[in-house]
């Protein structure tokens, strides 16, 4: 069951963690429910903090297309769904004209 969880990107409750340097969005899960994802949040946030600055983390019901989205993988929809602080971190202070 755990091996299946590690390889299969199904619809379910996922923990979404957005980090800076490098800018990426990681998905951890799937979890049985939102409560289980929230309980696991501390562990995954601590793990991510060791390698990067966390901009946001929340649980949501979705089906990620991959476990980690790097800056080159972002779509307009990905950035639209993220908090504005993450969008600013991705831009790195650059202005879009």
Name its key features.
97 residues; alpha+beta; 4-stranded antiparallel sheet; 4 helices; disordered N terminus
Return the average pLDDT rounded to an integer.
82
Question: What is the general shape?
Answer: globular
Report the portion of residues in β strands: 25-35%
Fraction of residues in helices? 25-40%
Radius of gyration: 14 Å
Order of helices and strands: HEEHEEHH
Number of helices: 4
Strand order, main sheet: write it out. 3-1-2-4
- SS class: alpha+beta
Low-confidence stretches: 1-5
Largest sheet: 4 strands, antiparallel
Distance between the termini: 48 Å
Structure summary, number of beta strands: 4
Secondary-structure blueprint:
Blueprint (H helix, E strand, L loop, with lengths): L1 H6 L4 E9 L3 E8 L2 H16 L3 E10 L5 E3 L5 H6 L2 H8 L6
Antiparallel strand pairs: 1-2, 1-3, 2-4
């Amino acid at each position: 069951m755990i091996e299946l969880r590690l390889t299969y990107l199904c619809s379910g409750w996922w923990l979404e963690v957005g980090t800076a340097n490098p800018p990426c969005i990681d998905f951890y899960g799937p979890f049985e429910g939102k409560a289980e994802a929230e309980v696991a949040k501390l562990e995954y946030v601590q793990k991510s903090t060791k390698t990067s600055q966390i901009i946001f983390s929340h649980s949501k019901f979705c089906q990620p297309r991959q476990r980690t989205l790097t800056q080159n993988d972002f779509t307009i929809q990905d950035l639209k769904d993220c908090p504005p602080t993450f969008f600013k971190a991705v831009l790195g202070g650059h202005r879009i004209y």
